[in-house]
Amino acid sequence: xxxxxxxxxxxxFHRGELAIxxxxxxxxxxxxxxxxxxxxxLPEQHQQFFAQLPYVIVGTVDAAGNPWASILVGEPxxxxxLDDRTLNIAARPLLGDPLxxxxxxxxxxxxxxxxxxxxxxxxxxxxxxATHADGFEVQVKQSFGNCPQYIQARLLELRENAxxxxxxxxxxxxxxxxxxxxxxxxxxxxxAYLDESAGDASGVDVSHRGGKPGFVRxxxxxxxxxxxxxxxxxxxxxxxxxxxxxxxxxFVDFSQGNLLYLTGTAEVIWEGAEIAAYAGAxxxxxxxxxxxxxxxxxxxxxxxSPELSPFxxxxxxx
Length: 318
Description:
This protein has 318 residues and is α+β, with helices and mostly antiparallel strands. It is built from 7 helices and 17 strands.
């Protein structure tokens, strides 16, 4: 297939994303860029990329409308393209992962294929068309790549944990959760806008966020504040939040195999002294926890010590 871009006359962005692009004066530029880089199929390069990954980040929404960010793990090849519009995922959710309850036929889903050691990442938003004993299939609605900014390079290897996994439901951020967040240089965020009026621009999105350890500020036992740096101007996450303030966060302890799944609401802070207090931040977003799960020793991956992104050198710290 030729390397065609967006085939629809309608914008690949919905009104929330478009409003932010207009606010920042990049609407026309992003319309041209979006139509060039966003596709309704998986280019061959993306098919090959997903096939070599041992894990993928997943975004779904539960029956109450809460987004969750999840991770699926498997031997390379567990992600395979049946054709350029269908991705098969041969993996089941980890113990305690909310994906075990949200996964069902016909739901909207977001996937982020990210290779941390090369800082490559590709996004896929689509619909679950089938579930089976070993996994599920996704029909592509949008497929596009992202730049390598703010990704900490670390090599992840498949490795079973010696300890048995344990699951703890939480309603506040206690000492264990706060320690994990304070040490994090990476997390993932799931958001969604599912209104039919958005057409092919509707769906669930899951995205990477990175910074120097400590870049996620713990305001209290239910509130986090995070700086947002200059990116690709798609504003998929913030565009969703403009129309639907619900968000899910996933923190990963790459050395211990612990996972922290959070869901709640988020708001974007566009101006004020609080932004200037963090070098490099262009805006902030504030997350308020509704519920979550801390799962220890469940991730069968082990990460090397990170090499921080060179893009973070001028960025500040809380």
